[in-house]
Amino acid sequence: MPDKKIIEDYPYIRYSKVMLSDQEMRERSHFFFEAMDSRRSVREFSDSPVPREVIENLIKTASAAPSGAHKQPWTFCVVENPEIKKQIRIAAEEEEFESYESRMSSDWIEDLKPLGTDWRKPFLETAPYLIIVFRRIYELDSDQKKKNNYYVQESVGIATGFLLAAIHNAGLVSLTHTPSPMNFLTKTLNRPANEKPYLLIPVGYPAKECWVPDLKRKGLEDICVFY
Ligand code: IYR
């Protein structure tokens, strides 16, 4: 049987999956759950270096996510330069100071108390890499005409999920950081008008002494309904 064919002018390749036994599916799904359940967001990073090739593999994994019309509407900016990290920290802390002091509601401040966050963001300089995810609203065709991407928010969210899973799988930690507003990243990183900042993710090893809040996850009965 050929592995390639043309359907209505477009190339297709054969695709199949090895069918696992119920027992093997149970084991593998449970193992993956346990692996992912041990992922935690971390705010205390070590400055130990991580090979760049690892970061490249993580980003290739993120870009393997599904996306609207397969447009892959994302750009991952990786900052390792200490000067740029410093600029980002200063700008993020300025915005976060305003947010914590006056922009966030009292409910919001209250809800964050168990996480121990405040406007200070030293991890933006400590972590060996900052990955800034940008969503690409449109592309320019060869005549410089704007062509909108589809389901950009959803697509970039899914890709970021792949990225966080890949980071965890590589034995590294991350934080989904949302300095707000984050337009300063467009300027600092000199990004084009079709890209908007989506999420800032410090990546590295946890600090030698690293603490995370003792959070509990919802049980299946609280998150899932079978019909
Ligand atoms: N962006 C702020 C505040 C913050 C908001 C939420 I929702 C969090 O889950 C955590 C933090 C900050 O990064 O501190």
TrEMBL record:
It comes from the Bacteria. Residues 38-205 form the Nitroreductase domain. The keyword Oxidoreductase applies. CDD domains: iodotyrosine_dehalogenase. GO terms for molecular function: oxidoreductase activity. Keywords: Flavoprotein, FMN, Oxidoreductase. It holds the Pfam family Nitroreductase. InterPro entries: Nitroreductase, Nitroreductase-like, Nitroreductase/BluB. This is Nitroreductase family protein. The lineage of its organism: Bacteria, Pseudomonadati, Bacteroidota, Flavobacteriia, Flavobacteriales.
